Amino acid sequence: MTGKTLYDKIYDAHIVADRGGADALLYIDRQLVHEVTSPQAFEGLRLAGRRMRRTDATLAMLDHNVPTTPRTEPITDPMSKQQVEALMANAEEFGVQLYDMLDVRQGIVHVVGPEQGFTQPGLTMVCGDSHTSTHGAFGTLAFGIGTSEVEHVMATQTLVVKRARNMRVLVEGDLPPGITAKDMALAIIGRVGTAGGTGCVIEYAGEAVRSLSMEGRMTLCNMAIESGARAGLVAPDEKTFDYIKGRPFAPKGGQWDVAVDHWKTLYTDEDAEFDIDITMNAAEIEPQVTWGTSPEDVLPISAVVPDPASIEDKAKQAAAEKSLDYMGLRPGMKIADVSVDHVFIGSCTNARIEDLRAAAEVLRGRTIAPTIKLAMVVPGSGLVRDQAEAEGLDEIFINAGFEWREPGCSMCLGMNPDKVPAQGRCASTSNRNFVGRQGPGARTHLVSPAMAAAAAITGHFTDVRDLMAKEPA
Amino acid sequence: MEPFTILTAVATPFYRSNVDTDVIIPAEHLKTISRTGLGKYCFETVRYDENGNLRNSSPFDRPPYDKSKVLIAGPNFGCGSSREHAVWALMDLGYRCVIAPGFADIFFGNAIKNGLLLITLPESDIQELLKKATGRQFTVDLEAQTVVAPDGTVTDFEIDAYRKERLLGGLDEIALTLQDADAITAFEERDKMARPWLYA
Ligand code: SF4
Questions:
Q1: Between residues B31 and A432, which one has the greater pLDDT?
Q2: What is the pLDDT of residue A412?
């Protein structure tokens, strides 16, 4: 018998009942809840007279709609306000733990879960949000679900889940200096494509992945969904255990050792087989910038905007033409010549302390270009904000010309008032450059926090390594 | 979820290709907190003009179709986004059954979760049914797997056993899963011993 992959180990350990074919009823260890995809689920419970099976396995927070201006100000959009108030009332009625807008622990679900130690190796974890894949960084089987499924988990703590195929992305060697997890994530999507992981769970492995910090691994797994995969996974190791230790939901006392012993069994067996296996060389990864309206439209900073005429596949050619038209770019233009007027550092991809440190290091002693209309930093949680302030990062950002905001999803999807105007061009550390994602007509280029900082300083995309080689002027 | 057994109602003819989820429910109505009440926005651009007046070309609000529960639609119905609002809106407008030559995958999955019966029939059958959808009543019999037109002609349809059972019993997926409540509890009892730190 051949060995098992990490994915299969976690899946098998959670089967409650077989459902025929590739389907099984899986036990769901933990659920994160936010205000946008939960109201109808709570309403469904109410209408059916059902309770929540395990409030202790559920954690709710406000993130998508919340303004990033001072929390003492009211929410002006009545629909956003209604969604926020509905979650507060539902949490109260059903007895769910909620971090409200004034709670220091509040923030983006995918930043807060790990930060609180709610995310742990070997768990099955869900949230009504596609970027739930982030939690895979801990060796957690975590994936996004629809609203009926949210309700299903609330009522039964289980979900009917189809077994996914196994895919591995092996990144060998060491990442060169100045290259981050975000560049790795984008380079992988560029290679695999946005549908390359369809029907799969991707395990990221190899030296370059092992050497990433937990924050870096979260950035990587966050974007697994952008490769079309159900989830991303990194096998847990000492770094994972160190990160979790002492956090509020972490196992305590004697249970810690029992937990770690269990977590150490969570790896892919030597002789396990993957349905798809891809190998990349970390040394070849350069700073990445997207040029189109899909995360797979990505190139190194040294490249030029591609010419759709050179694409053979007719459908892809037409898509590229449409993208360039929307993005207002000409084929053959150097990526480094594309100027930006907005900079957004934030989102569940890149709003953790390490991300803010990386951006601040570039910005220290420098100021943003006068052509930048708005540059903002939105920490991923209240705790990230406090940590950054304790390290003086807020001052570096503010002195450079950035706005320092309160935590939330913010300009990642513009459900709150933070939007990029039509035809505005934004260097963004988020994960989706879809048409209209940051506001109607907005043009988004996905980059790492360091590359966003570099673009803010020069007013156009710039290889951050060149900037770092010089002293601030 | 209400059981689906025999449905007798007027059928609305609405034959168009690729009716997407934005047509079924425009995106601006998604910032809602409710699954109900979306019926008034269902097919909004088909039913109302820019000034909010009912369009003469729309079948939906005119008698006898205002009491309709069956929709006879075109190919690839429900394509577009994954949001469940499309199904909620149709059901809130009164529909319990949609008959079409084909449905988009995700819409298909969402419909069953909410008890909306989708029937796939060959194009030729659809054309026949459309001709007969002039305001008199159709009968959809799920047990017998038949659609009976007002003139008495019977059209058989296929449905897989698992979906049929769920619809007939009014078993939403939660109710079905709860039939395994003992297995869930047993899992938790075992798990509490193995991973006690996960239980408060
Ligand atoms: S930060 Fe963006 S991608 Fe992440 S959960 Fe919020 S809206 Fe979704």
A1: A432
A2: 93
**CA–CA separation, A50 vs A40, rounded Å?**
14
Query: In Å, how far from its chain's centre is CA A341?
Result: 24
pLDDT tens string A110-150: 999 999 999 999 999 999 888 999 999 999 999 988 889 99
- Which ipTM was obtained for this model? 0.94
CA pair distance B179, B195, nearest whole angstrom: 25
**CB proximity A160 to B under 8 Å:** yes
Domain containing B59 equals: 6-169
Q: Given the CA of residue A415, which atom of ligand 1 is nearest to it?
A: 7
Check the annotation: does A127 bind a ligand: no
CA triplet A402, A406, A409: central angle to 5 degrees?
A: 95
Amino acid residing at A421: P
CB atoms within 10 A of CB A307: 14
Distance of CA A108 to the CA centre of its chain: 10
Q: Are residues B193 and B134 in the same domain?
A: no
Residues B195 and B102: their CA atoms lie apart, in Å, by: 47
In-domain check, residue B1? no
Give the mean model confidence (pLDDT) for residues A429-435: 92
Query: B interface mutation test: which of A16, A56, A120 has the most B CBs within 10 A?
Result: A16
Judgement on whether residues B11 and B56 belong to the same structural domain of the protein: yes
Q: What's the average model confidence in pLDDT over B45-65?
A: 92
CB of A108 sitting under 6 A from ligand 1 = yes
Whether the CB-CB separation of A362 and A453 falls below 8 Å is answered with yes
Q: Are A118 and A249 in contact (CB under 8 A)?
A: yes
Total domains present in chain B: 2
Q: Distance (Å) from the C-alpha of residue B135 to the closest C-alpha of chain A?
A: 33
- Ordered DSSP codes for B47-74: HB-TTSPBPTT--TTSTTGGG--EEEE-
Length of chain B: 200
B196, B199, B137, B179: which is closest to B10 by C-alpha? B137
Contacts of A251 (CB under 8 A, 6+ apart): A120, A258, A259, B197
- With a 6 A CB cut-off, is A296 part of the ligand 1 pocket? no
Q: How many CA atoms lie within 13 A of A354 on its CB side?
A: 17
> Can you say whether the dihedral through the CA atoms of A144, A251, A235, A217 is positive or negative?
positive
- Asked whether residue B176 falls in the same domain as residue B165, the answer is no
3-state secondary structure of A103: coil
Q: Give CA–CA dist A80/A92, Å, rounded.
A: 19
My answer on whether B53 and B15 are in the same domain is yes
Residue showing tokens 């209400």: B2
| Annotated binding-site residue? A412 | yes
Helix (H, G, I), strand (E, B) or coil at B37: coil
Please give the Cα distance from B90 to B79 (Å, whole number). 14
Could you tell me if B113 and B137 lie in one domain? Answer: yes
